Amino acid sequence: MRAADQRLFIGGEWVAPDGGHYEVIDPATEETVGLAPEASRDQVHAAAAAAREAFTSWSRTAPEARAAVLSRAADLMHRNAGRYAELAQAESGATTATARGMQVAVAVARFRRYAKGALEPVETPLPPQINEAGPMGRGGVLGALAVRQPVGVVTCITSYNNPWANPAGKVAPALAMGNTVLVKPAPQDPLSVYRMAEALDEALTEAGIPPGVVNVVSGTAVAVGEAAVDAPDVDMVSFTGSTAVGQRIAEVCGRGMKRQLMELGGKGAAIVFGDADLDSAVAGIGTTYAFYSGQICTAPTRALVHRSVYDAFVAKLTAYLGFLKVGDPRARETVVGPVISGAHRDRVESYVELGRKEGATVVVGGERPAHLDKGFYVAPTLLADCTNDMRVVREEIFGPVVAVVPFDGDEDEAVALANDSDYGLIDYVWSADVARAFRVARRLRAGGVGINTVGRNMEAPFGGFKRSGVGRDVGSYALHAYSELQSIVWPG
């Protein structure tokens, strides 16, 4: 199926969209990648109903069968990885290395991980309890078992910055637990998710699984996303995106008591103490520019640097930027590609201008790359001499912009600055004193803390404090997120 012919995937059928099609634009060239289907509200509800109908049989399917489906889907994605990476690059503007290694390859790895996850035990025996005779019955010993059950129909609303890994991180564990899914991809790059659906459809059909386990709908209208949340057949919503949208989703979920998993905004604080390895800190914080062109909620965009090394840090980060080639993401030497759209480029640039007005020093960047006349490019930008009350320090910019805030005191001041934020997704600490780094990490109000690294352990729980989200996923924690706990009690 060509991208220009793309249809919705509802109940095992490729369905013509009621709302026609819209153009998906390559952020690097501003050319049309393909046409994506625009679903109607009724079609979204029909997709949720198809998932509800499929839930009974899929939830009762043996874990080994679910594991086989996920493993087969991973094989199919791996087989077509080159073609899929080209599509992901065209839709999202990712560099070649990112599209191959961090988008498609990570999606394959996640399906393989949750093929194994489908086989993880779902029953936990609890210690027997001795009860005395009373109003509740005769005395005796009661045994108990905690059992994880699938939630039901899960709506997965995914982000535009990674059209493969992000959906895979939702769909694979949800299916492994026996849920059925309705996937609503980001409107900017939905075509990759339809390719994922094709792989899953083939794997499910080969296994003889009835249709409706996986459904995909897309659209630019707000009503499409709203329908995916308020559909009466939906039991849970898993969302990755902005805090503002997450709050609106939570309000709707609250009215229906629907379960939620929310990965929302971030403004990662990177504390750099005076004894830190500055080269390591610069390389880590510099990933903000190189990784998805700053369009990542885990980026260390807020550098809190001790005054004793502040000038040296700014000088090193400035020099580091000189090695970051901005341009065509298909070119081998490119490190920083475009942001997702012209509207988002304008938003990032408006924040840089706001920083100037607030008193920040634009050390590097702040202007549109002069050598690029097509594409939505933003020059990697370093804002120095910032204070924690500036909007460029407090608000998520979601672009290749780092704000540096100096501090003069001890770890108490650093912790206070880091915690003075609405967000709390992932923070970072750089220090040669490992004991201090761990001590500081425990005091940070963030769902994750990296010590002298921006790397992640993909079995560690992932999620945010405060306005950065609700719930945890990744590793076995994702299986827990897409399940309900049931207790079973019996007389011994």
Automatic annotation (TrEMBL):
A Pfam family the protein falls into: Aldedh
Alphabetical UniProt keywords: Oxidoreductase
Sequence ranges assigned to domain Aldehyde dehydrogenase in this UniProt record: 14-488
InterPro entries: Ald_DH/histidinol_DH, Ald_DH_C, Ald_DH_CS_CYS, Ald_DH_N, Aldehyde_DH_dom
Entries under SUPFAM superfamilies matching the protein: ALDH-like
The keyword Oxidoreductase belongs to this UniProt entry's keyword annotation: yes
Protein name stated in the entry: Aldehyde dehydrogenase family protein
